[in-house]
Amino acid sequence: MPIYYTSIIQEHNSVRNNAGLFDVSHMGEFHLSGPDSESFLQKMTVNDVGQLYEGRAQYSAMCYDSGGIVDDLLIYKKENGYMLVVNATNRKKDYQWLYSNLGKNVHLEDHSDEMSLIAIQGPKSRNILQRIVSSDLSDIAFYHFIEYDRIAGTTAMIARTGYTGELGYEIYAKTNSIVLIWDALMDLGEKDGLVPTGLGCRDTLRMEMKYVLYGNDIDENTSPVEAGLSWIIKQDKGDFIGRGAIIEKMENSDRKLVCFTMKELAIPRRGFVILKNDNEIGIVTSGTMSPSLEKGIGMGYVTLPHHTPGTEIMVNIRGQNKSAIIAESPLYKNGTATK
């Protein structure tokens, strides 16, 4: 997928106001099956897989014993097992991590090369997609999916998930079928403002929502507690890898991931220093110019107690300190994802 097709701003605004179509086939897809697959996932992930049922999806993370994050991922409970969708850059690492912990009654397969993924996102996405699917899309609740549906003359899995903060659907199909679906959507969606969208606006959209990106905002040295992901940690479900370290971090965390907006005309970037009263309190992990807010925005880890919304900070941008303020998340308040 290119950085952009026309421009990042145009594509970003199309997703916020109409719809955009992303090719995210670089993501990794694993299939997990076997009688012990649920208990295996309970051990490997921080969320409670026991809450899943067929047709339900879950956002989760895998951690090391240290509590650092192996990867964040989506888990789909299918008819004959689970599908795990992992970040492309972590595909090999994740597979090896899962395989090294695999039990005898669990079967792991990497389907990434034979599976492709496109995502239609935006407030008009449902109306556009509905024209080429047999199921009633209004019946698919947020973080639910239909495993088998006829779409553009082929079969695909349709999930109401996404990475933009808008109403949207992710479509999984065999690689040789995905082009047919893409072309059908573009043909039928053009009158509603559907445009192809690239990685650039995927990044600006997710930053406006404070959605983390592995390698920027989270990695093996960050805890899900620090990253604002405590809501997916279900410590009462029983033991899982990293549980002890995560509980310790809940009691003794000294930094938090925050989002902020610039008060001056400036764009924060990854690696820039965050200051309070001329003292370094953190580092920017992600930053951009927000097309929706029309100002610079960013994310970064700051030491406590400077994480409180409303706290005024400075960001050192190419040798000059620029004023900013820590904000409530999400920065963009009008998303349609759950509507």
UniProtKB/TrEMBL annotation:
Residue ranges of every copy of the GCVT N-terminal domain listed in the record: 1-237
Catalytic activity: N(6)-[(R)-S(8)-aminomethyldihydrolipoyl]-L-lysyl-[protein] + (6S)-5,6,7,8-tetrahydrofolate = N(6)-[(R)-dihydrolipoyl]-L-lysyl-[protein] + (6R)-5,10-methylene-5,6,7,8-tetrahydrofolate + NH4(+)
EC number(s) on file: 2.1.2.10
Single GO MF descriptor: aminomethyltransferase activity
Domain (Aminomethyltransferase C-terminal): residue spans on this chain: 255-333
Keywords assigned: Aminotransferase, Transferase
One GO CC annotation: glycine cleavage complex
Top EC class of this enzyme: transferase
GO terms, biological process: glycine catabolic process
InterPro entries: GcvT (IPR006223), GcvT/YgfZ/DmdA (IPR028896), GcvT/YgfZ_C (IPR029043), GcvT_C (IPR013977), GCVT_N (IPR006222), TrmE/GcvT-like (IPR027266)
Statement: the UniProt record of this protein carries the keyword Transferase: yes
Family (UniProt): Belongs to the GcvT family.
Protein name as catalogued: aminomethyltransferase
